[in-house]
Write a structure and sequence with these properties.
This protein is mainly α. The chain contains 14 helices and 6 strands. The strands form 3 sheets. It has a two-stranded antiparallel ribbon. The chain has a two-stranded antiparallel sheet with strand order 2-3. A two-stranded antiparallel sheet has the order 5-6. Helix 7 packs antiparallel against helix 9 and helix 11 packs across helix 13.
């Protein structure tokens, strides 16, 4: 959150009139002009405006508390009239940028099985089979493996230490409100776990290298590097999760089970943010042709 707020502040406020004005001289008209100009010039979506709004609310509530301004930001925001048409439309995310195609999965899988059966690469394959978040993958211990399921009860967290550097730790809590879950394993996932155990049977965590836990970012770094080597559009480890979700939904898995496997509380989250149409164009054409066949 700290990094996001800092980045957003520099993005929205730096080199603006309001940034270079003493706080006590900022009027409601100036603030409204700043907001509308930012939305227009920076082509903000409604979601991006939400990030700016959080910053403005926090800054002006603090300023009012300290006596730097008389503006009641709660009342100001309540009176602020912003038409939905003012916001930029979010571009549709393409499937090829968000998930791995079946061909790409085959290329990666064959490459790993034929040439580079390292523990981190086995973790990447396991993510294809389980949909685990990188932080969950990085935090797995052998006590989480129950033969046919994986107990997901931990995740990696990141925060800044007193020296300003990032600290990576394993938290005994899950990432979302869905809480702990048991991920049902495919036969392939079980086979992968057996291979991983043959490499690291006694480590504190499943995924370790040189006696240290492999951090979540390690999986993404390796995956991106491998994609470039294989001429596949580079994608993060989170795209493995989206690929898994898409396969489950396309495969007709019950909605309750999809949400359970992914650790979501609602199928709408899975469908809205994790599902991408991945059928070939010819398949789509056949469907349209069949629907319009009046003969």
């Amino acid at each position: 959150s700290y990094d996001r707020y800092k980045t957003d502040f520099e993005r929205f406020f730096k080199d603006t009139k309001i940034y270079n004005t003493k706080f006590k001289y900022i009027t409601e008209d100036m603030l409204e002009d700043f907001i509308k100009t930012s939305i227009h010039d920076k082509k903000l979506t409604a979601k991006a405006w939400g990030g700016l709004r959080i910053l403005i609310n926090g800054i002006f509530k603090y300023a009012k508390k300290k006596g730097y301004t008389n503006i009641s930001i709660t009342q100001f925001m309540g009176d602020l009239d912003l038409s939905n048409n003012i916001f930029a439309r979010k571009k549709k995310v393409k499937a090829e940028d968000s998930i791995f195609s079946n061909t790409e999965v085959s290329i990666l899988t064959n490459y790993i099985n034929d040439r580079e059966l390292s523990i981190i690469n086995l973790g990447i394959l396991l993510a294809f089979e389980t949909g685990l978040r990188a932080g969950e993958l990085s935090s797995l211990t052998w006590s989480d493996f129950n033969g046919k399921t994986l107990s997901i009860n931990k995740t990696e967290i990141r925060y800044r230490g007193k020296d300003g550097k990032y600290v990576y730790e394993v938290s005994d809590t899950t990432k979302t409100a869905a809480g702990e879950r048991e991920v049902i394993l495919s036969d392939n996932a079980i086979m992968l776990l057996r291979k991983i155990r043959s490499i690291n049977a006694f480590g504190e965590y499943m995924f370790m290298r040189d006696g240290k836990r492999i951090k979540a970012k390690g999986f993404t770094t390796k995956l991106v590097r491998m994609c470039k080597r294989l001429n596949i559009s580079p994608k993060s480890a989170h795209k493995l999760r989206k690929t898994y979700a898409t396969k489950l939904i396309d495969g007709g898995v019950d909605e309750w089970l999809v949400t359970d496997q992914l650790g979501h509380t609602d199928i709408s989250t899975s469908k809205k943010y994790y599902y991408f149409h991945r059928k070939e164009e010819e398949y789509d054409r056949e469907q349209i042709q069949k629907a319009l066949n009046y003969g």
